[in-house]
Amino acid sequence: MKKLALAAGILLNLYSYKAQDTIQSRNLKEDLALINPNFQTKEQASFFKKDWVKKSVAPTILFAAAAATWGEKENIREVRNRYLPNFKMKYDDYLQYAPAITVYGLKLAGVKGRNNLGRATLSYATSLAIMGILVNSIKYTSKVERPDGSKNNSFPSGHAAMAFTNASFLHKEYGMVNPAYSIAGYGSATLTGLGRNLNNRHWVPDILAGAGIGIISTELGYFFIDKIYKNKGDNLSLLSKIEGNDYPSFLSLKMGTALGTTNFLKESELDDKKQIGFEGGLEGAYFFSKKWGVGADVSFSSFPIKAQRITFDDDQDFGEHTIKTQSMGFLGAGIGPYFSHEFSDKWQLTLKATAGYSATASGKVFVKGDGIDAPNHELQIARYKPKPGFRWNTGASMTYKFNPGLGLTFYTDYNQINSTIRYSFSDDIKESEELDQELNHLIAKEKINYITLGLRLTAYF
User: Which positions fall inside the Phosphatidic acid phosphatase type 2/haloperoxidase domain (predicted)?
Assistant: First the structure.
């Protein structure tokens, strides 16, 4: 009888809505649900809102980045060999396990996560099994030589896969409790991958592919175990009550292309073209409101310098020679105000202006020619040493949010550095007092201006 009365009331409401041409579908769904608790409305989610699409975005980006950097892996290693040739710190052997240890430490301390201890362990073990099968089957099929030449099992990185499996495990269990757990987990995984590269054990594509495998393995592990338990977690009803402050504070990993707008060594006459390089780094900001915050970035950029042809006096035939200058590298950091504007729950604009410090790496200058009897037909003639300088940076970015905690950001920045470079020439020149006085005290003031275009993987907290 009560259901009949409720149905009659619904029909009267529908009649009234039609008369006013203002049907409210949400109330209709609620009323139908009251009549039949098993009633469910089926709404077709858009492609980018589908659960499997959102979960595959990060691994897809990492696999694409691995493919994109494959042809540049030797050049990227050359940057490492130039700036940190003797780097040997084995922290990556231990840091890869830190996120998983954190999960079990929190559970033993009684902190509620997505799942209870037993189910979390089962999901983790399944993830590790999937990761191990993927990594080892690819390793011993591709047989890529390690950069240090020790073995032919470089691709993909097992350390990176383990680190990102563990980071995803921490994110799954405690990311809903506090996004800081996710940021810490993925941050430690990133440092693990960086350590594999700096220790000359892996190429950059190895690390990127390993990271992608680690993330997708955890997603698959949880997918299968959730199917067995027929839900997505033991404590989701409890965790759903936890809410953030809705401020757009974030931490991101960025990589992009750097386009010179000036000739970096114009005054030194070693560069006659604007150069194209790459940039990578970290960026983050803490917002005090929905609009304003303060942020900082640490980034490294490198630019190759095109060799310059030189000619000698007409009566001296030394053949064709070129002046070759090692690439210029900039390690910069800055801090300043950030402004954010949300166009919708998916699209967000961010503007910034920062000021800080930039250190420029020293380099060498060679003369190269077929007639030079030296390794690679190159003879070093000078070294250059830039002084650290002031750097200011301004930029804009647009983020598409896959969910409230993760987004993909397209960014563009403008950087300006005023650099003073001192040149020191070879000992042979020092033997001539006149040349030594003229050349070994050579100082050039260069304007380093460049624009970066790239992508950031952005985590909000």
Answer: 122-222
| pLDDT tier at 96, thresholds 50, 70, 90 | very high
pLDDT at 242: 61
Is position 77 within any domain?
yes
Pick from 231, 230, 216: which is nearest to 55 by CA?
216
Both tokens of 301, joined, read 């950029």
Q: Is the pLDDT of residue 378 over 50?
A: yes
| Rg of the chain (C-alpha set) | 29
Other Cβ atoms within 10 Å of 166 Cβ, number: 29
Distance of CA 354 to the CA centre of its chain: 20
Rounded distance, CA 290 to CA 422, Å? 46
* pLDDT, tens only, 149-198: 899 999 999 999 999 999 999 999 998 888 888 888 998 999 999 999 99
Residue 203: which of 291, 379, 78 has the closest Cα?
Answer: 78
Q: Report the pLDDT value the prediction gives residue 214, as an integer from 0 to 100.
A: 94
**Which residue in this structure is represented by tokens 């006013």?**
20
State the virtual CA torsion across 33, 34, 37, 38 in degrees, nearest 10. Answer: -30
> Residue 18: which pLDDT band, with cuts at 50, 70 and 90?
very low
Helices 98-108 and 179-198: crossing angle in degrees, nearest 10, is: 150
Give kind and range of the element (H or E) at residue 410. strand 406-425
Residue 420's domain comprises 250-460
Helix (H, G, I), strand (E, B) or coil at 320: coil
- Where among 211, 239, 267 does a domain terminate? 239
Six-digit token string for 299: 């980034």
- The model's confidence at residue 15, banded by pLDDT at 50, 70 and 90, is very low
Do the beta carbons of residue 429 and residue 399 sit within 8 Å?
no
Q: Which residues make Cβ contacts (< 8 Å) with residue 220, sequence separation at least 6?
A: 126, 127, 130
Considering the domain architecture, whether residues 395 and 254 belong to the same structural domain is answered as yes
